[in-house]
Design a protein that fits this description.
about 15% strand, 11 helices, alpha+beta, Phosphorylase Kinase, domain 1, five-stranded antiparallel beta sheet, 10 strands, Aminoglycoside 3'-phosphotransferase, Chain: A, domain 2
Amino acid sequence: MNTYKTITSLKNSDERYNFVDENIVMDNIQKLFPTQEAVKFQVIEDGYTNLVFNFTVEGLRYVYRYPGVDTEYINRETEYNANKIASELGLDATLLWSDKSGHKIMKYIVNFRYLEYSIKTDVELIIETFLKLHNSEQLSGQVYDIIGDINTFYVDNFEYNASIFPNMSKLFERVKTIYKEFNYEDRKHVLCHNDIYRTNVLITLDRYYIIDWEYAKDGDPSFDLATFIICSDYSDYEVSRLLKMYLKDDYTQELAYAYYQGFAIASFYWLLWALHVEKNGGDTEGFVDKYYGYLLRFLKIITKQAKALNNPQK
């Protein structure tokens, strides 16, 4: 990992950082460290939507998150509110400073590993996190307009999307029908992270951290679970088992049907998001195909569930 004395030298070495305003970065760092000097800037490669680098102050390393280009669809004030709640709930102890424009300074966590979908205790940890967040009765202040976001991505990128998936129009109509039956507006909304997957969960020997709250909004808990699921390689059986772990004694066939509807809606959103990223030159590292595969699986499961619910004796 290369080290740079200034933001300018970092920018000169990596064209992705050309638009970074050094004055903004240094002013924000000085808000947290008014009398100390920030040195040793290093690029961190993680992240699809933002630029992330670390720096050192008096021998300790910190992380700076600079909002990326083409991220106007992210409500940074909502992220700010959600991250504050997460810190209060003990879900993200990394946050040190942030503003409502998307700039953040965080602790640099050492000796951590990312969540592993195949480790039972890791999955139990995530279920615990979902329940703690969803049952907190705290809200970010913005309802997740998932169908609005779907419509925007669908219209703005239609030609590109249809060139990759000729059935895109049929999928869109199917998801709209599911959304109408899902009756989202009348369902109870809870605070959701909406982006909990492997690299957004840092695990150390004595605690864990849920990071990156930029997609957090108030919405249906099924959307939160869906994001976690569709970034995995779970079988249909494993998805069903996860849902039962989350719902516990509340599990019924009717409720499971509603959750799978939410899974389908969310997986379609993430498919459109991934296509948007790749259309604009990004690399989602295979998530387009993964999200598409899960969407088709959820649509098939929903069809089967609907038949069973409508014909309980058969």
